[in-house]
Design brief:
single chain; 115 residues; mainly beta; seven-stranded mixed β-sheet; four-stranded antiparallel β-sheet; 11 strands
Length: 115
């Protein structure tokens, strides 16, 4: 069993920044992939960014140059630094990990970008 706890969401003005955190816990935690996804009202859940065990990252075109995914393996934590936020970034952001036990999701954290 893997548990994911997200934090860092909130209300921010356009052009502002937020950092999301996701702490994973469970026995023998060894993720192959960690990532962030988001879902806005009326939209399908979409990939935002992923990071592989070797450090390779991947980003959606809409966030390239603005968002950065990183991890602290010792703390079993993955981060999403979000800069130059736009109203269209408003969504519920979900953390996900893939391990030998399967794929797991966090509960989501709301990010609202508005004046």
């Amino acid at each position: 069993q893997v548990q994911l706890v997200e934090s860092g969401g909130g209300l921010v003005q356009p052009g502002g920044s937020l950092r999301l955190s996701c702490v994973a816990s469970g026995s023998s935690f060894s993720p192959t992939l960690m990532g962030w996804y988001r879902q806005a009202p009326g939209n399908q859940r979409e990939l935002v960014a992923t990071i592989q065990s070797g450090g390779t990252t991947n980003y959606a075109d809409s966030v390239k140059g603005r968002f950065t995914i990183s991890r602290d393996s010792a703390k079993n934590t993955v981060y999403l630094q979000m800069n130059s936020l736009k109203p269209e970034d408003t969504a519920v952001y979900y953390c996900s990990v893939v391990t030998a036990l399967g794929r797991f999701w966090g509960q989501g954290t709301q990010v609202t970008v508005s004046s």
